[in-house]
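Translate sequence into structure tokens.
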Amino acid sequence: MNRMRTPPPPAGALRLTPPSSRAHLWLFVTTLCVPVLCAAVSTALSPPQARVLPQGIALSTSMLALAVPAAVLLVGLMLWGLLAAALRRQSLSIEERCLTVRSTFFRTRVDLDALLLDQARVVDLDERREWRPWLKVRGFSLPGLRSGWYRLRDRRKAFVAIAGSHRVLALPTTAGHALLLDAPDPARLLQRLRALAGPARAG
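Result follows.
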């Protein structure tokens, strides 16, 4: 049987909360500031003598004091650029009655008919601790960001896309994992998902 094509939602109806400036700051510090500082300090504390590279080129300590941090900075910039781009990859979309959730490097797809929308709730993670991400299985995290596959406190498997909010949409499914989604308005997101899934279920 051919699937009905789901009409596109109105603008802003299906959105994830983008990572906060706190997460971006931590990323910048950990990928650039800390490695460059460590390289500079390590080189400065090296014995003041010339070092010979495998190609036979002699480098003084003062030259190393510039070359090593510069090399670390270059690598850090590339890594920071890759991860900063991943942080911007937070999205929800529905096509052919399938919900696709993208968060940093990870993605999951769940059929609308597999969403247990009658059991879905907007929860406060400070109060409903069983929904808190507990063990990172295959994911990415920073202070204020949880992304990818986790085990929750109640041991269930979940795809998590949280950007620092405490109030999130907790959505069980029949697909073998739950969804934990941080949206600007999680109640509105749940309402929209119910509206999209309703006609087909009724039919």
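Note: The CA atoms of residues 31 and 78 lie 9 Å apart.
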